[in-house]
Automatic annotation (TrEMBL):
<dbReference type="GO" id="GO:0008483">
    <property type="term" value="F:transaminase activity"/>
</dbReference>
<dbReference type="InterPro" id="IPR000653">
    <property type="entry name" value="DegT/StrS_aminotransferase"/>
</dbReference>
<dbReference type="InterPro" id="IPR015424">
    <property type="entry name" value="PyrdxlP-dep_Trfase"/>
</dbReference>
<comment type="similarity">
    <text>Belongs to the DegT/DnrJ/EryC1 family.</text>
</comment>
<protein>
    <submittedName>
        <fullName>dTDP-4-amino-4,6-dideoxygalactose transaminase</fullName>
    </submittedName>
</protein>
<dbReference type="GO" id="GO:0030170">
    <property type="term" value="F:pyridoxal phosphate binding"/>
</dbReference>
<dbReference type="InterPro" id="IPR015421">
    <property type="entry name" value="PyrdxlP-dep_Trfase_major"/>
</dbReference>
<dbReference type="InterPro" id="IPR015422">
    <property type="entry name" value="PyrdxlP-dep_Trfase_small"/>
</dbReference>
<keyword id="KW-0663">Pyridoxal phosphate</keyword>
<dbReference type="GO" id="GO:0000271">
    <property type="term" value="P:polysaccharide biosynthetic process"/>
</dbReference>
<dbReference type="Pfam" id="PF01041">
    <property type="entry name" value="DegT_DnrJ_EryC1"/>
</dbReference>
Length: 394
């Protein structure tokens, strides 16, 4: 998380003084326009649009891609509930896909979950761990599926040479207070497709009906909602964007230091990554759930077992599991060809992995010496029960 401080505070004063607080009150584009141009340049993508939230970005991307009633959208069983809720807001239903030990969508399970109704995949780059995008893009192209990357928890991370969010048809980002860069609440959608971008922009601004200056790529106006961001958010994000790459560099450095120390204890198995060269998230996988529990209890600060961060586990998404929407008739589960059912066993592989895995904070705002000290202490903590020796890191 990039800190918010004096520079953000100073950046807000000119916005207040100008009186141009709304997106379209500044005809030059204002701070939002500047942020979007810089974001496009930094991320190597053609179009970016700041929005009120990452959830809004996901929904706008789905609508722009033409996803709707009767469609199935693949989402991971381990993510923030917004990923599963977004297809429902577009009239489609989420289908849960297992994660593998990289804590991201298991491509093998994607193949098992595809049906003739599948229209899109939302791979989630979970807590700065990137998905296997090569495999996911290959499957998507073979089955003619739209790919909307949920990069809300991995803003700025790279998969091989590209920033996540710029590989699929769309990328969705969140700038809420707990994400890599933040303006309290906010989000963005990016795409290289001008027509899809025009559709997403129209949707996020009740059709952009009276914005004659916008290029809508000959798309007829369509109705939408209001997910617009304000210039206040733009001003903060301009400062935050400058903090992004230095912060990721600090994460990467601490990942290397900590993983090297921890791997000296042959009983601690460091979790795999889809792109180890860009790793900025550290997790250890144990043989049993009890071993993971014990490791988390002994280390406490900066360590938790993933299964215990319950809000990200599908078994706790009550309104999704119970298929409950605001109005009973506006329920996408009524509009599918087949009956969709979720049970606690829907994604048993995910539950098994989350129960045996601990996440270790990289402490990117702490000195490396302190982080190394904590890693040495962790590496010495009571070793897991016998049997975990099977997990020697060879
Ligand atoms: C935060 C988050 C979102 C939603 O972002 P908001 O800005 O809070 O709406 C979506 N998906 C994931 C994985 C997230 O972590």
């Amino acid at each position: 998380m990039a800190k918010v401080g004096l520079r953000e505070w100073l950046a807000l004063a000119p916005v207040f003084a100008s009186g141009k607080l709304a997106r379209y009150s500044d005809e030059t584009g204002g701070p939002l326009g500047r942020f979007e141009a810089d974001f496009c340049a930094k991320f190597g993508v053609r179009h970016a649009l700041t929005m009120s939230s990452g959830t809004g970005a996901l929904i706008s991307a789905l609508i722009a891609a033409g996803v709707g009633p009767g469609d199935e959208v693949l989402v991971p069983a381990y993510t923030w509930i917004a990923t599963a809720a977004a297809p429902l807001a577009a009239g489609a239903v989420p289908i849960l896909v297992d994660v593998d030990q990289t804590l991201t969508m298991d491509p093998a399970d994607i193949l098992r979950k595809i049906t003739p109704q599948t229209r899109a995949i939302i791979p989630v780059h979970m807590s700065n761990m990137v998905c296997n995008m090569d495999a996911i893009m290959r499957i998507a192209r073979e089955h003619n599926l739209a790919v909307i990357e949920d990069a809300c928890q991995a803003v700025g991370l790279r998969y091989k040479t590209k920033r996540v969010g710029t590989i699929g048809d769309f990328g969705a980002f969140s700038f809420n207070q707990f994400k890599n860069i933040n303006c309290g609440e906010g989000g963005a959608v990016v795409t290289n497709d001008t027509r899809l971008f025009a559709r997403a922009r129209m949707y996020h601004d009740i059709g952009s009906m009276f914005r004659g200056h916008l290029d809508n790529a000959n798309e007829p106006p369509m109705l939408g909602v209001n997910f617009k961001a304000s210039q206040i958010q733009g001003a903060m994000l301009n400062v935050q964007l400058k903090r992004l790459d230095p912060m990721i560099a600090r994460m990467r450095e601490r990942y290397d230091v900590m993983s090297e120390i921890l791997s000296k204890n042959k009983r601690l198995r460091i979790g795999p990554h889809n792109d180890i060269g860009n790793a900025a998230g550290l997790h250890v996988i144990f043989e049993t759930s009890d071993d993971a529990k014990q490791f988390a209890e002994e280390n406490k600060r900066g360590v938790y077992r993933l299964y215990d961060s319950s809000r990200h586990v599908y078994t706790n998404w009550q309104p999704v599991l119970q298929q409950r929407t605001g109005h009973p008739a506006m329920n996408p589960f009524l509009w599918t060809d087949r009956r969709i059912e979720y049970t606690p066993e829907s994604c048993a592989q995910t539950l098994d992995i989350l129960k045996r895995t601990c996440r270790i904070s990289l402490g990117e705002n702490y000195p490396v010496t302190l982080v190394a000290y904590m890693a040495r202490r962790m590496a010495r903590s009571t070793p897991p029960t016998a049997g975990s020796l099977f997990y020697a890191t060879t």
